[in-house]
Amino acid sequence: MVQAKLILESLKQLKVTHVLTVPDNGSRALLDLLWSDREIQVVSVTREGEAFAIAAGLWVGGKIPVILIQNTGLLESGDALRGTVLRMRVPLLCLITCRGYAKFSALKASIAPGAADAELLSRPDLDSIALLTEPTLRAWSIPFELLESDADTCKIADAFRKAQTLEQPVALLLTSSTT
Amino acid sequence: MLTKHELLEPLARLRNDQVVVTTMATVRPWTRYSEHALDFASADSAMGHAADFALGIALARPERKVICLNGDGSMLMSLGTLVTIMSSGAKNFILFVVQNDSYEITGNQPIPGTGFVDFRAMAKAAGFLRVYAFDDPRDYGSALPGILAGDGAVFVTVKVEPGSEGPLCRRPEESAHYLRYSLAESVRRVQRALRNSA
User: Which of residues 60-89 of B touch A (CB under 8 A)?
Assistant: First the structure.
């Protein structure tokens, strides 16, 4: 688990101006902090694809947006992500909370890459979104790292800088809920 | 019902330093009246995401108005954006829906809801307080200065004759000035123009 206050501190150090989000249980603690802190503006959107288009516009206008969505929303975002921030080459840090990773992590080593067939995707003991998150990011050429503990919060600044250098989105996967 | 000329010519004439985001069937026609550094074509991008992209610019630059000329099919694709606009508190955003009742650039196939869809009612239901609907060029022309002058998020739906705009692409030989650059270069040009005019 990662403490939300450490993530918030990192975002402030990076001078992030806006967080675009559809809330979920994994981001709840971080959003509670963001809303009470008020230094960074939170923009709630109606679907995750909107978040990427608004982030692109904010960046054009000189702001520093960050995306905070669940991995299900990442898949929802498909064409918006492709047609805005990827095609526009917008440097963008994406914090992706990951549903289904607790069960997935235990089996990850035994699942061959690319083996997410219909049999696996329909297994009741697995959440299919966890199987599809990392392959989807690879398919979209979005670099990513896992954010699993407080010690990993240094990856936030690294991912941010990588996004600036590459001029594209870079993702951090929060594999458990923020606390 | 208005022609595209009746829609766009007065808007270009009254426009000064606003950002203008076009998409779909207004992308090329707009350039007959405007060649401004703050024009941006949401083309070769993602359908349904012109209005939210424009909202992002408006939120970043509250001192400057942003006008989006959205398509009706594009609006239907992202109706939630109407709510997001109002929820965001943007006071410098003017959203047009150019209602030609068709997907013009793919061959004028009818949009869902042709004949009964009511964009004005949807905007009101989403919380817009300043909502306008026009199907007469004289009414539109006389109201336009006030629409552009006031504060608050503004929603304007205009019934426009379907045309014959073809598919959009970006290439150096394009007659439309903002289609001569890649999408990545286009956003950087607008970014620079905003920075230089701050």
Answer: 60-61, 78, 80-81, 83-84, 87-88
User: Which residues of chain A have a CB within 8 Å of the CB of B46?
Assistant: 49, 53, 79-80, 82-84
Q: Does domain A4-174 have CATH number 3.40.50.1000?
A: no
Evaluate the CA torsion angle A9, A10, A15, A21 in order and state its sign.
Answer: negative
Using an 8 Å CB-CB cutoff, list chain A residues near B57. 57-58, 60-61
ipTM score of complex: 0.97
Q: Could you tell me which residues of chain A have a Cβ less than 8 Å from any Cβ in chain B?
A: 18, 41, 43-47, 49-50, 52-63, 65, 79-80, 82-84, 87-90, 167
Which helix (H) or strand (E) segment is A119 a member of? helix A118-121
Give me the tens of pLDDT residue by residue for chain B, a chain 198 residues long. 999 999 999 999 999 999 999 999 999 999 999 999 999 999 999 999 999 999 999 999 999 999 999 999 999 999 999 999 999 999 999 999 999 999 999 999 999 999 999 999 999 999 999 999 999 999 999 999 999 998 999 999 999 998 999 899 999 999 999 999 999 999 999 999 999 987
Joined together, the tokens standing for residue A158 give 């690294």
Contact A50 B81 (CB under 8 A): yes
- All structural domains of chain A with their residue ranges: 4-174
pTM here is: 0.97
The answer to whether A60 contacts B80, with C-beta atoms less than 8 Å apart, is: no
Total domains in the fold of chain B: 1
| Residue A136 buriedness (CB in 10 A; 0-12 / 13-18 / 19+) | middle
Residue B80, domain CATH? 3.40.50.970
* Domain of B173, in residue numbers: 4-196
